[in-house]
Amino acid sequence: MGRGKIEIKRIENSTNRQVTYSKRRNGIFKKAQELTVLCDAKVSLIMFSSTGKFHEFISPTTSTKKIFDQYQKNLGIDLWSTHYERMQENLRKLREINTKLRREIRQRLGEDLNDLSIDEMRSLEERMDSALKLVRDKKYRLIETKTGTQRKKVKSLEERYGDLLLEFDAIGKCEDPQYGLVENEGDYESAVALANGASNLYAFRLHNGHHPTANLHHGGGFGPHELRLA
């Protein structure tokens, strides 16, 4: 049983359309290669898929430019000159725009104003005022952004400073009074002098089995057997 006849119309499914394009493109390239080998023909085949992909087949003994040159010669037309004329026209327009912009820049700098009429000078003034307003608005936005960033940084530092104060107060409240700050100025100066003059760092510790305030409650101090050097 032979294959059914395929109706020639656009394939709606994009995947099926791409698969069919790939298969038939390879078939056309194969036929073009066979035509080149069997008949010594010069073949140039250019194809674009629906997705914009470019595919090309050129006979090994020629190039696309040679094919186009021969095509123009046989038909008596010049594709390159038409394209060149369009490029020249585009270049002329760009030069006019460039000249106009340069002249306007000089006028904004206070030059080339002698040939301007009152209306032209008034129009130039309005354009300059509009440009100045845009520049000022841009500057103010930048200043506001920078100021807002600085304010956020300052606020963050203030919050951090407050947290540190709270932590410091909490640590001070939780300290054991005997290890707290020295309130007696004379004792503090003696401790500083002892720390500065000592060659080694010592730590005092209490003898095991004695409470640190046991003798203090009786009005006495620490005995020599109750205080040892670690």
UniProtKB/TrEMBL annotation:
Which intervals of the chain form a coiled coil?
none
Residue span, MADS-box domain? 1-61
Q: Name one GO cellular component term.
A: nucleus
Name the InterPro entries on file.
MADS-box/MEF2_TF, MEF2-like_N, TF_Kbox, TF_MADSbox, TF_MADSbox_sf
User: What are its GO biological-process terms?
Assistant: floral organ development; positive regulation of transcription by RNA polymerase II
The name under which this protein is listed is TM6
Give one GO molecular function term.
RNA polymerase II transcription regulatory region sequence-specific DNA binding
Q: Which segments constitute the K-box domain?
A: 84-174
Which keywords belong to this entry? DNA-binding, Flowering, Nucleus, Transcription, Transcription regulation
Q: Which PANTHER family match?
A: SERUM RESPONSE FACTOR HOMOLOG (PTHR48019)
Q: Which domain of life is it from?
A: Eukaryota
Q: Where in the cell is it found?
A: Nucleus
